[in-house]
Amino acid sequence: MKALFLGAVLGVLLLWPPALSLTAALAAKPVIVAFGLGLAARPAIARRLRRWTT
């Protein structure tokens, strides 16, 4: 599922060039980058916490 999502995002960035400049502008903001990384890491953290509590 992650590979499919990554492929779709890369396809949009290649086929629609303004999206690339928007992505670069968002990546320049540390708060947005940290929020995105937090969303990406949340499932892994939840699994680890579930193992610790059981």
TrEMBL record:
Name the record gives this protein: Uncharacterized protein
Provenance organism: Streptomyces siamensis
